[in-house]
Design goal:
Length: 120
């Protein structure tokens, strides 16, 4: 959604508010729809005209100029979820423990099958 306003108050001149509304809609078959809560969230953010982590950012015209007037929202707002850091050594150890447990269970099952008179 683009909102253009030539009559901005002085404190908003040469500034642009980017809002990352990528997830603010109801998915439809052929077309997505803004729900009331999505519209309300966008309006509230616009009225407050301030940064909201991972959702909105007020950017100076100079920064946009420095980015060769690229208006891609993702250039100005990082909305990516922080990725979990995985301790590979710990996960590997857990995998080894689980593998040993699996082997023990497999041996028990083979014993039960043998007791029942079935062969593998």
């Amino acid at each position: 959604v683009w909102i253009l306003n030539k009559n901005k108050p002085e404190n908003k001149k040469n500034k642009i508010l980017f809002i990352e509304g990528e997830h603010d809609f109801k998915e439809g078959k052929n077309q997505n729809t803004l729900r009331k809560q999505d519209i309300d969230k966008i309006i509230k953010t616009y009225d407050q005209y301030q940064d909201v982590e991972k959702y909105a950012r007020v950017v100076d015209k100079k920064e946009i100029e420095d980015n060769e007037y690229n208006l891609n929202v993702r250039r100005y707002i990082d909305s990516n979820e922080e990725q979990e850091i995985i301790d590979v050594k710990k996960v590997w150890q857990e995998l080894n423990v689980l593998e040993k447990e699996r082997e023990e269970i497999s041996k028990k099952v083979a014993g039960f099958i043998k007791e029942l008179g079935y062969s593998q």
